[in-house]
Design a protein that fits this description.
Layout: E1 2-3, E2 6-7, H1 19-41, H2 45-64, H3 73-82
Antiparallel strand pairs: 1-2
Helix pairs in contact: 1-2
Length: about 90
């Protein structure tokens, strides 16, 4: 593919996450978890964010091991992590 004379070779199923994308996702998740804590849980900020992060991680592990119900979500997460270029980040 060529746009404005610059050639791009990107496959549709391949997504490269750069530093900006990773930081944007982490800040968005932090803001979302902070809002959930402030609005519903009402714990101190540090404890609330840690609790929600642990529960989210636990939920991802459970979904990853749920087999057919998980809709192969574990493989999707692995593909996302594999596409992060840690040398650039």
């Amino acid at each position: 593919m060529s746009i404005y004379g610059v050639r791009y070779s990107v496959q549709e199923d391949e997504v490269h996450m750069n530093f900006f994308n990773i930081v944007a996702i982490l800040i968005t998740l932090s803001a979302l978890f902070g809002y959930i804590n402030y609005r519903f849980i009402k714990l101190p900020t540090t404890i609330g964010l840690m609790l929600i992060s642990i529960l989210m991680s636990l939920g991802m592990v459970i979904l990853g091991h749920s087999g057919e119900i998980g809709l192969d979500i574990q493989q999707q997460w692995i593909n996302i992590i594999k596409n992060i270029d840690f040398n650039k980040v």
